[in-house]
Design brief:
about 350 residues; alpha/beta; FAD/NAD(P)-binding domain; D-Amino Acid Oxidase, Chain A, domain 2; 2 domains; seven-stranded mixed beta sheet; 7 helices; disordered C terminus
Length: about 350
């Protein structure tokens, strides 16, 4: 027997919970499915403060740096306009969970469609039926149609949240990029930089980052460089509070906008092709996307029509054009304006 829902959301990361929470506020009967649903979010969740303040989400941040700095060399740096926000993962997660009534701790395996809805099969053999399905499972995009071309450029990062004797950074500055590499001598290829968030005079997050490379820079090399850099800067590590490691696909393709499953967050190609950010967009578009889905269901539209109108909100023509420009800037070889639907 199938259990029936309005919407099944696969994935309970920031993107999955954001769209599920918005769907719940629309009064829809939803369920989230994720084998790791009970696990806390481990990685840092950040955004430009100006992107989340209009959403009222800055109250879930534990630190907002009023200035963002890029360091080019020993005597060369630039302070950018705007502030940088770091979410308290537990606060944000708990806030989003308030509007979600049901979570299934299982892995999604397959999805099958008919004219009126979809059936999602779980790893344990259970089947869930819904009108609509949202895939927010990250780059795995477990339920979406697989793109012909996967991302081929990766932002690999390795960082530590560390107690230190002291660090040289102002507590008012988030260090977006510290490009200084003299400590490497001639062994400075491939290029990497330091991303640093000072939380207190004796506590900071330090991350060695490769903006984009193919293949991604090995984590062993990133770790070696990070500790070399900190030693060169005479930063003494007293205790590592947390380790972070990640590989982010930097040029994911825009999903097939005619498919039934709605891709959201990383699964939906939300990653900014030039910076790697996606969280703010996932949070900001959850309300409009959820309203589109809810209005379509209430109007009795067929699932394909609901998906089509929702994709038009998530991927308007101007955003499709911007994505192509970003990817051209990253030298991904994308043809001019392929696949953009007519107005």
């Amino acid at each position: 027997m199938h259990k029936n829902y309005d919407v099944i959301v696969a994935g309970t990361g920031p993107a999955g919970l954001a769209i599920a929470s918005a769907l719940g506020r629309e009064g829809l009967n939803i369920v989230c499915v994720d084998p790791k649903a009970n696990q806390p979010w481990e990685n840092n969740t950040c955004a430009w403060a100006d992107e989340i303040r209009p959403l009222g989400l800055d109250k879930y941040c534990d630190k907002i740096w009023p200035q963002i700095e890029i360091i080019f060399g020993e005597n060369s740096s630039k302070v950018l306009a705007g502030a940088y926000a770091h979410f308290d993962n537990d606060k944000l997660r708990n806030a989003l969970l308030k509007d979600i009534k049901e979570i299934v701790v299982q892995e999604t395996v397959t999805v099958a469609h008919d004219g009126k809805g979809s059936i999602v099969t779980l790893k344990n053999g259970d089947k869930l039926k819904s009108i609509m399905v949202v895939d927010a499972t990250g780059h795995a995009h477990r339920l979406m149609e697989k793109p012909e071309k996967e991302a081929d450029s990766f932002q690999n990062v390795l960082g530590i949240l560390a107690r230190v004797g002291k660090h040289p950074y102002s507590l008012e500055h988030m260090i977006l990029m510290d490009f200084r590499s003299g400590f490497l001598g001639k062994k400075n290829h491939p290029p990497t930089f330091l991303y640093a968030m000072p939380f207190a005079p004796d506590l900071a997050f330090f991350e060695e980052t490769s903006l984009a490379d193919n293949p991604g820079v090995p984590f062993d090399l990133l770790k070696e460089r990070l500790y070399q850099r900190l030693e060169h800067m005479k930063i003494k590590i007293l205790k590592v509070e947390k380790n972070e490691e990640g590989a982010l696909a930097m040029n994911p393709v825009v999903p097939d906008l005619k498919q039934r499953v709605i891709g959201y967050g990383l699964a939906g190609g939300f990653v900014h092709a030039a910076t790697g950010w996606s969280v703010a967009r996932s949070l900001a578009q959850s309300g409009p996307a959820a309203r589109s889905i809810a209005e379509g269901i209430r109007a009795g539209l067929l699932p394909d029509a609901i998906a089509e109108q929702t994709y038009k909100i998530l991927w308007p023509r101007e955003l499709l054009r911007m994505r192509i420009i970003h990817k051209r800037g990253a030298r991904c070889g994308t043809p001019i304006f392929p696949g953009i639907p007519p107005s």
